[in-house]
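User: I'm preparing a small set of examples for a lab meeting where we compare how different chains pack in three dimensions. I only have the primary sequence for this one, and I'd like the structure in token form so I can line it up with the others. Please keep the answer compact; I'll paste it straight into my notes.
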Amino acid sequence: MKIPIYHIDSFSVNQFGGNPAAVCILEKWLPDNILQSIATENHLPATAFLVRGTKYSTRWFTPEYEIDLCGHGTLASGYVIFNYLAPKLEKIELHSSAGILRVSRQNELITLDFPLKEPEQCPSSPLLEKGLGQKPVEVYQYRAERCLVIFDNEEQIIKMKPDMQTLKQLGYRGIIVTAR
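Assistant: Understood. Below is the structure token output for the 180-residue chain.
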């Protein structure tokens, strides 16, 4: 099987900088286990798959699982489309499980317009506090898959030594910590 693949360093103008992503161009969707195997073999933070038709469709995989939305993978996809696949385009829509993602370019600048995800406030848990080593001020989650944890001050974030094994037990795909 031949699949065109691009290795893009998103959020950087330097080679080997930023956040790397693979972008694979497909004629049609392959079985999920094949997509996962390709992403696992790429061993990058994300592999974006694009299917061209009358519209562009996209999906993203980490080496371990599929994700519902990937910013740097979308940015890398936009770069590939604007620079290699359709250089005359200035705007595209990528159809994804997260909705329609609008990507535009003006000169060398690529802009992403994503749908808004509304997190809901929820109580903290002993496991979250153990994993982060501190009690947060507020906790928000999105569909029990992403978690935003707010602390009192920046110093708490700087000194934080998260216990990743404990945090993995929570089942979130992502945990963000921040302070006012």
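A couple of notes for your slides: The chain has five helices and twelve strands. Residues 30 and 64 are 17 Å apart (CA to CA).

User: Perfect, thanks.
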